[in-house]
Design brief:
The structure is a homodimer. Chain A is built from ten helices and no strands. In chain A, helix 6 runs parallel beside helix 9 and helix 9 packs antiparallel against helix 10. Chain A binds a DNA duplex through helix 1 and helix 3.
DNA sequence: ACCGTAACACTAACCGTTAGTTTAAATAAA
DNA sequence: TTTATTTAAACTAACGGTTAGTGTTACGGT
């Protein structure tokens, strides 16, 4: 049981993983996602095909290596927000930041690739659903009137929807504001006239 | 150019398609989705593997054969509603009906299979996104204050989210009502204080 | 120095999916 | 009817992502 995981093994493993991810992204951007096979990636990174899948669950996962913290960022935007800030405001701020981040010049080519590949879009959608579930869980610890599980999961979905739609919009930042105006109204409406769930 | 496509060819083709779909669903329910290969389906239906893919775009599509009208039902709920009925009310009624439909005794086993298979859940998610886009398009012809493309697509997503979440909830019908209370508020909030898009 | 184990290589396959080609039946044209 | 055109479907072979099985090596704790 390595208390301090600072061994040579871990470093080599991390290096291998990094090399695979970098090589994959480079090849994908150079030749196109569909034109590059896993066997190509493995050969170029000088590892075995099985090693690629030892580090990444699927070909698509290679693309989203860099945005692995999306889920944590959403949850922390809720839990670590300033005392005065409202829940919805904190989420809007975070979505603004995330949209800005993936529209930055260095990330833009990768996102263009994602947008033009059906396989990657589908994978991203499934990813966002998982993120929404994590956000819904984080919402459970919120103060205020108790909200049902359904309401929390709905709000969480709306938030990730906002991210997806804003990326497509002509004016992404304005789109975030438009959608969050709706989310705020939805969040407030969830309070009024709701029966609290019978059990719990 | 056959004006009346009532030839023997079309009938045989439809019969083959039906036989494949029926056989596939039966095998999937009997042995489990992952335990049945396309080659099994083809053999049992007494057709070639290529014939299966001539009728269905993917293995997952075999499962959703019966719910192919989901997209049209959403769009028609909007366009064909009674003159007095509000947009949101019409959508809520349709989602209620759709949830009830897929919770009926004969459809329940298939939906349980979908819920327990990651591949099928992912496919369904991508499907619903397409349906949301279609609904957003149908929303463009609505009377009332002009709403931006972003607002329409957001509402459309919220609606299909309602369907997905209600299916998971303990009390599906109540969940639909809870979420639509939020959607209604969101829809109304989209009017207030919005700048109309600059072009158009 | 020793041994357990984690990381990786290699082979060979499985499965969904597609391309290319061919057969045969239904329909249209002669 | 006979011929020609169309088209559903068969067959063969492969491609590409993914996994199982099996070693081999090098690190790390003792």
């Amino acid at each position: 049981m390595p208390e301090q995981p600072s061994g040579r093994r871990e470093r080599k493993k991390a290096a291998t993983r990094q090399k695979i991810a970098d090589t994959a992204l480079r090849l994908f951007l150079e030749r196109g996602y569909d034109a590059v096979g896993i066997r190509d990636v493995a050969a170029e990174a000088d590892v075995a095909v099985t090693t690629v899948f030892a580090h990444f669950a699927s070909k698509e996962a290679l693309v989203f290596e860099r945005d692995a913290d999306f889920e944590q960022r959403l949850a922390r935007a809720v839990t670590d927000r300033a005392p005065g800030e409202s829940l919805v405001a904190a989420l809007r701020r975070e979505i603004h930041a995330l949209v800005r981040h993936c529209l930055a010049d260095d990330a833009a080519p990768a996102w263009h690739m994602i947008d033009t590949s059906p396989a990657l879009r589908e994978y991203e959608g499934a990813m966002r659903l998982r993120h929404a579930e994590a956000l819904a869980t984080a919402l459970a610890d919120e103060p205020g009137p108790p909200r049902s599980d359904t309401v929390r999961r709905a709000i969480a979905r709306f938030v990730v929807d906002a991210f997806a739609l804003a990326r497509d919009a002509d004016d992404p930042q304005a789109a975030v504001d438009d959608i969050f105006r709706m989310i705020e109204a939805a969040w407030e409406a969830a309070d009024t006239g709701v029966r609290v769930p019978l059990s719990g």
